[in-house]
Design a protein that fits this description.
mainly alpha
Length: 90
């Protein structure tokens, strides 16, 4: 357990990422959007992949098919995490 807010907050990015992956696989990108938003909020310097996955989820939540397709291409180019391969296959 962390003794202060800063230490606790530092772990939230990793935990949110893991939970985001689980939710994305189980319930789809719209449902995973809040988890990837937490990643961006709690990681000191989000990676391009973290930003792209969040953008992918936001596009899904917004029902924006064109942006969802574009973000799919971006995530594939950046390198799909092994755990999310089923989402981005094909």
């Amino acid at each position: 357990p962390a003794d202060d807010w800063r230490a606790a907050s530092a772990n939230w990015g990793d935990e949110a990422w893991h939970r985001g992956e689980q939710v994305l696989l189980a319930s789809g990108p719209a449902a995973a959007r809040p988890w990837f938003a937490l990643v961006l909020a709690h990681v000191a310097e989000p990676t391009d992949l973290q930003r792209a996955l969040h953008g992918f989820c936001v596009a899904a939540a917004d029902g924006d098919a064109a942006r969802l397709a574009a973000m799919t291409v971006v995530v594939r180019r950046l390198g799909v995490p092994a755990a999310l391969a089923p989402v981005f296959a094909g």
